Amino acid sequence: MTGDAPTSAPTPGTLVGVGVGPGDPELVTRLAIRRLEEADRVVAPTTAPDAVGRAEAIVRQVLPRVRIDRVHFDMTADDRPGGRAARSASHAAAARSLAPWLRAGETVAFVTLGDPNIYSTFPSLAAAAAELVGGLSVQTVPGIMAFQALAACSATVLLDGTESLALVTALDGTAHVAEALGDPDRAVVVYKGGRHLPEVTSLLADHGRLDGAVFGELLGLPGERIMPVAAAGVQPATYLATVIVPPSSRAPANRQQDASAWTPSS
Ligand SMILES: C[S@@+](CC[C@H](N)C(=O)[O-])C[C@H]1O[C@@H](n2cnc3c(N)ncnc32)[C@H](O)[C@@H]1O
Known about the structure:
- By secondary structure, this protein is an alpha/beta fold.
- It contains eight helices and ten strands.
- The protein has helices at residues 30-38, 54-62, 83-103, 122-132, 146-153, 175-181, 197-206, 229-232, and strands at 14-19, 41-46, 68-72, 107-112, 137-141, 164-169, 186-191, 214-217, 225-228, 241-245.
- The strands form two sheets. Strands 3-2-4-1-5 form a five-stranded parallel beta sheet, with helices on both faces. The protein has a five-stranded mixed beta sheet with strand order 6-7-10-8-9, sandwiched between helices.
- Helix 3 (83-103) crosses helix 4.
- The longest helix has 21 residues, at 83-103.
- The radius of gyration is 21 Å and the shape is elongated.
- S-adenosylmethionine binds next to strand 8 and strand 10.
- The site of S-adenosylmethionine has 23 residues, from strand 8 and strand 10.
């Protein structure tokens, strides 16, 4: 017996993915704000140490006094050949930078655009962090998604009755969009399709689905554009562009709530 008191390891911390909506600070939920306020540390993804990411910019508007630590991510990895490997290396490096805080028992809130469980960096970051920090608790706080904001701003009734929804991406091309458009009872949402907007527009025309299809770019952010796809789709848009297409089996009058509601959210 040495008489020394046993030193207990700190309880591993908690990593919380907090969705902060598509851009408009009024679309950040009260739960998200509370979890950000209660966290020991708020962390935001960034492409460079001196760049304010989209999610950080939203948090700054709702909680101007909260300190935000930036974690570097290779956001363009998906766009390059071998992108998946680059992306996973980038996420592993980001997880390494969070690990000391999590091992010390901190609650770390990681902010994401929209919802943290939909096409987000958060799940793979959390998986990489869990490999480094045994016993890590991972939680998420839901966020409003870009397509919901776009449906509201354009007064589009996206789903009714027994209709279904396909949420597809068009980062590498329009194959998933074409497949989803085959069912007239299905609403289609296209994410990550800005670069391929002209091809998406042609596909919608080929399937008779241009009527009621809406394009939204930089929703809730400077430079926001909301308009019919038919008017926007002649040239590529930015990465932060979303297209919503209501089912064509529903009468046009039942796809739009109030045509006068075609106003940007701001
Ligand atoms: C990596 S995903 C992130 C999705 C996000 N987690 C969500 O729940 O909406 C990025 C895609 O989401 C859509 N998106 C996110 N924010 C947007 C915004 N402010 N305006 C338009 N589209 C947006 C775009 O389709 C973009 O390519």
